[in-house]
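Before going further, it is useful to explain how the protein records used in this thesis are read. An example of such a record is reproduced below.

***
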Amino acid sequence: VDKAFFHSLIHSCAKAGNSRAASACIEWMLTSGIQPTTVTINLVIDACAKAGSLSLATRWWDWAIKEGLEPNSITYNTMIHACAQAREVSKAEWWIQKMVDDGCSPCIVSFSTVIDAFAKIGSLAKAETWFQK
């Protein structure tokens, strides 16, 4: 059992939107003495996002930062996606600002996720504001 095994397993959980199973896999990974990477955290946060579990996604973000893992643009975008899935659009905006503050440049994925989130809640004016950025 190695990192690739766990990544495959967590990726499968993410595709199924099963945040509990993804979390269990990372716990198993840790008890097996295998250190998670930023890729691991991205996969777990993606599972949380797909399940609409922003609180669990945030828990894994916090854990990763505490453990010294460096978030990348995928990590930030996945947190933005988690906010969008939970219909927490103001938090999605906050994550874009955090991304900038932390020196990571938002990209088309960042902006399109926020635009989509505002459109889904019927705030077309706010979606258009983000589109103009």
Summary: The helical segments are 3-16, 19-31, 38-51, 54-66, 73-85, 89-101, 108-120, 124-132. The mean pLDDT is 94. Residues 32 and 77 are 29 Å apart (CA to CA). The two ends are 45 Å apart (CA to CA).
